[in-house]
């Protein structure tokens, strides 16, 4: 559980606005937020804080039709795209992935599919990956650095009483489930992460590349794939997927000493499909910048113990207090640090909290006004 001391420390500093009528969210310095809104399955709150020179986190919430077919399913789609090496891939995913999902559902509709499926999600990831690699090929000679840009990709979809969690990379989705017997809300992690810091990921890489003794390398106390990158799955990162992009004019620091025959990284997501129950209260989706400073249970306790309005912004603020404390500085001083330099203290952080209304979820055909909102539109 989050410490009472931390909650008391942050509480006096926090005064969320009573309402947020701005449909596209608001920006304040490096912070963008949408305090509250409604999706077809309940309420939501979103926030983004920028640390890099260019914001590398992108995100979206889509509520309403999940298909290009009029009679297709309705639901809620959440995407968290944590870029690395630049913002190009995360921006591309933000523009293309949901459209690809709707298209893939339409293509599968003829096969008698009436709801979203893991196969449709997998195809949407694959189509987005192929589109981006095609873009890299087109821009290779004029903009070779785009081959070293990639993004983690976390997707959550609520449809017909079921939640799908698809993840490639190390962003995280956590469910808050009410435990009436103990009067608390328990954190349940729903996403599988693909980061070389986990022994299971290193073993997976070694089993896939048995002849490569350098497939994972520990540098400066951090495990990295080929000594270059922490995540083992992503969209983009063409330089570690196709040997044709791992050569000049790519910068020398990204070029491997030996050519490779098969992709080192994968865009294949881990997918969980799980029924939602009345005790399931909310879902927290966030890039790894949040989880560097808060545990799953701490985040769930914060969402459970405070008003819904502005809760995503509150999670970010508490994480920044923790980041400042780790550097033995005051939060007020951290806020004065400009983007770029700020990255030495914390990462870009994106948070989307979905509250679950089971009266709406139980209506499998729940319909409401369509909503499309992109995080950090104002930053």
From TrEMBL:
Q: Does the keyword NAD apply?
A: no
CDD domains (UniProt xref) = PP2Cc
- List the SUPFAM superfamilies: PP2C-like
Q: What is its EC number?
A: 3.1.3.16
Chain ranges of the PPM-type phosphatase domain: 43-356
User: Which is one GO molecular function term here?
Assistant: protein serine/threonine phosphatase activity
Cellular-component GO terms for this entry? membrane
Q: Which UniProt keywords apply?
A: Hydrolase, Magnesium, Manganese, Metal-binding, Protein phosphatase
What PROSITE patterns would the database entry show? PPM_1 (PS01032), PPM_2 (PS51746)
Annotated catalysed reactions: O-phospho-L-threonyl-[protein] + H2O = L-threonyl-[protein] + phosphate; O-phospho-L-seryl-[protein] + H2O = L-seryl-[protein] + phosphate
This one is known as protein-serine/threonine phosphatase
């Amino acid at each position: 559980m989050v410490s009472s001391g931390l909650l008391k420390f942050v509480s006096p500093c926090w005064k969320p606005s009573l309402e947020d009528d701005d449909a596209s969210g608001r920006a304040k310095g490096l912070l963008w937020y949408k305090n509250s809104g409604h999706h077809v399955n309940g309420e939501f709150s979103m926030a983004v804080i920028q640390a890099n020179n260019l914001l590398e986190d992108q995100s979206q919430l889509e509520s309403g039709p999940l298909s290009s077919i009029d009679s297709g399913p309705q639901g809620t789609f959440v995407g968290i795209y944590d870029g690395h090496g630049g913002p190009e891939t995360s921006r591309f995913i933000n523009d293309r992935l949901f459209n690809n999902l709707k298209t893939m559902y339409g293509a599968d509709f003829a096969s008698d599919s009436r709801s979203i499926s893991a196969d449709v999600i997998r195809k949407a990831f694959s189509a987005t990956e192929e589109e981006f690699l095609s873009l890299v090929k087109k821009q290779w000679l004029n903009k070779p650095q785009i081959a070293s840009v990639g993004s983690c990709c976390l997707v959550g979809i609520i449809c017909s009483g079921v939640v799908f969690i698809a993840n490639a990379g190390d962003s995280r989705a956590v469910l808050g489930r009410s435990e009436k017997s103990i009067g608390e809300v328990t954190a349940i992690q729903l996403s599988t992460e693909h980061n070389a810091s986990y022994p299971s990921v290193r073993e997976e890489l070694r089993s896939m590349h048995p002849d490569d003794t350098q497939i994972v390398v520990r540098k400066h106390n951090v495990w990295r794939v080929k000594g270059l990158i922490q995540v083992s799955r992503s969209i983009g990162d063409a330089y570690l997927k196709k040997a044709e992009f791992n050569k000049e004019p790519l910068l020398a620091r990204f070029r491997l000493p030996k050519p490779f025959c098969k992709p080192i990284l994968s865009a294949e997501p881990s997918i969980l499909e799980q029924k939602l129950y009345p005790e399931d209260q909310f879902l927290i989706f966030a890039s790894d910048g949040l989880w560097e400073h808060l545990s799953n249970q701490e985040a769930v306790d914060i969402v459970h113990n405070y008003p819904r309005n502005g809760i995503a912004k509150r999670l970010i603020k508490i994480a920044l207090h923790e980041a400042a404390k780790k550097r033995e500085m005051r939060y007020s001083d951290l806020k004065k640090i400009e983007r770029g330099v700020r990255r030495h203290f914390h990462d870009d952080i994106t948070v989307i909290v979905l509250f679950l209304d089971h009266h709406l979820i139980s209506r499998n055909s729940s319909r409401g006004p369509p909503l499309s909102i992109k995080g950090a539109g104002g930053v």
